[in-house]
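Below is a filled-in request sheet from our internal design queue. Each sheet records the structural input a requester submitted and the sequence that came back. We keep these sheets so that new team members can see what a complete request looks like end to end.

REQUESTER: design group, bay 2
PRIORITY: normal
MODE: inverse folding
CHAIN LENGTH: 167
BACKBONE (tokenized):
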């Protein structure tokens, strides 16, 4: 009876530790995507804080005579993620390998970035749309339990970063 209880507790502990492993990987990838989005917002900072009279208007540059043109850059978010997470391209996904490059730890793909610009010279600056960047990425993490490879965990991570003026 004691051996059965110990084995059941060991199986329960293994399940809990695998759950925590999945949570830690998902949290780490989410934070890396947040860092990449903040980097994208910072890259657009010079355009958002234009020295024009409009102040915190969006990323606009003078175009022609009296006209303004929107100028946004998504940057290379995958390159930032590759540097931060240590992933590399494999089969259309950005994959992180463990155990010396033999076992997949996680994979990232389907990155979609949306930039929402602040309006040029809004009539109500206090309630105007701020400059924001949204990212959606799909994360695959293989699940291992009892020495076996189970179906992978697939989750969609959504991240938002924005420029907030201080003065």
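RETURNED SEQUENCE:
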């Amino acid at each position: 009876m004691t051996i059965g209880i110990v084995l059941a507790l060991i199986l329960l502990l293994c399940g809990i530790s695998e759950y925590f492993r999945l949570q830690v990987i998902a949290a780490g990838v989410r934070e890396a995507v947040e860092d990449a989005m903040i980097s994208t917002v910072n890259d657009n900072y010079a355009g958002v804080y234009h020295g024009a009279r409009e102040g915190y208007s969006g990323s606009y540059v003078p175009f022609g005579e009296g006209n303004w043109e929107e100028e946004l850059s998504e940057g290379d978010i995958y390159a930032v993620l590759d540097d931060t997470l240590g992933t590399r391209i494999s089969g259309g996904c950005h994959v992180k390998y463990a155990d010396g490059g033999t076992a997949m730890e996680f994979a990232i793909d389907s990155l979609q970035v949306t930039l929402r610009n602040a309006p040029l010279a809004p009539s109500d600056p206090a309630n105007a749309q701020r400059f924001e960047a949204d990212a959606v990425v799909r994360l695959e993490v293989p699940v291992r339990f009892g020495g076996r490879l189970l179906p992978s965990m697939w989750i969609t991570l959504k991240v938002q970063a924005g420029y907030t003026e201080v003065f």
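SHEET NOTES:
- DSSP finds three helices and seven strands in the chain.
- The chain has one domain: 2-162.
FILED BY: M.R.
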